Predict the structure.
Amino acid sequence: MFSLFRFSLTIGLLERPLVIGLFWGLATGDVETSLCIAIFFELFWLDLIPVGTYIPPHLTVATFAALSLTTFFGLDHPGRILFVLFASMPLAWLGTRLEALLRERDQVNYNKLLTWVRNPDSPRLPSLIVMRSVGRTFVYSGLAFYAAMLVLVYFFEIFFSLNPSLFTKLGVTWPYLWVAATLGGLMALRVRRAYALLAAGIILFMFFTLWSRF
């Protein structure tokens, strides 16, 4: 349904990851983890703005997938949720590709509308075209999301069974993930000095981390 909200129905901030995370947390009772996941996705794609014909990544499907998998497996440690975040991120790109394909398919209706404008014999034709497009988007997006979730669920069932304690000993916390996600905000600045400062900070951090180990 969120795939329809992006272009067929405007609901404002209700489709943002933070809002989705809040409602998901209230429904499941784990508000803290849900909002932490939502903050990560909000920060990571902060650089990408839907302007012109550009189709931005499908933030809602990635957020919803990460929240669903986290709740399904009962995850609460950021080190294990890290895998879920990375596995859900490609769904944002796949959702964009699906929307692009559906847009190309809807181009056949352009000639129908031109013919209708010259000879408007059926006043319901524009409404039928819109309803068919919305219905097709709903069905295709729903099936694609369901198939993707099945693949991810079976994958993580095997992955977590083989590696029950993987990455829980590294001490990964949400601030680390948020700092990594803020790269999207820095990229949005479009300032070379900011990029240089970021690169210098990463180099210094790695240098002092390696130096402390030796």
Notes: Residues 125-162 form the longest helix (38 residues).
